[in-house]
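so im writing up the methods section and need the Probable membrane transporter protein record in one place, dumping it here so i stop losing it
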Amino acid sequence: MQNFNAMNTSIILLSIVGLMAGMLSSSIGFGGGMLLLPIVTSVYGIEVAVPVCTIAQLLSNASRTVIGWKSIEWKKTLWFLLPSIPLTALGAYGFSIAPKNIMTIIVGFALILFAIQKLRGKLHFPQHPATMVVGGCVTGFINGMLSISGPLSSAVFLTLDLSPVSYIASEATAATVMHVVKIVVYGKLNLVNEHIIIAGLGIAVAMIVGNYLAMRFIKNVDKKKYQKVVAGCMILLSLFLIISTMC
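--- predicted struct ---
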């Protein structure tokens, strides 16, 4: 009876976190994975948490792609995916041997620096295919290893000066493809089983509900103010990721 109550508590907790993660991701383009990973890790452990979060994020991002389909910036997204697909696979193979805590902290500090420069107006990347290709390289590799690609890919797509819905949908499309690649690799490494799939699906349902609510909200948001809010959230969530990793 005690184990049953504990299981029910975990399901309720993960559903609430999934809903919040979906709303967060669809509001600012990232943060769902950063919020999910520490909580799911506390329930299942890191080796299980990463595949579970990957399944949940795959379906969550796919739903954002469907919702914002007409606004996707396809050409830039494809340039991003060109290098990110093979490097996501490479990073996923390195998942079992990477020093995850150290790399997560380094990525967190790099994102804080990016966001501060963006808020100060000191960071300007050219809207050129090379920006998307380089961004895809870095994001794909880190995504495969740590399953926290959202802030990295968001930082790249934020340079395109897109409308909020176009930015969210384009980034989600790229993330969906990268998550598919990871699931395939994790499957080959025997890191995915039916229990992991069920847990990921359960969280995904809650995230999709959050996606729908948030995507309706951002349609009429001012683009410039929105980008500043995104940068500010990137700082706060990166600090949360660093602290949760060190604890």
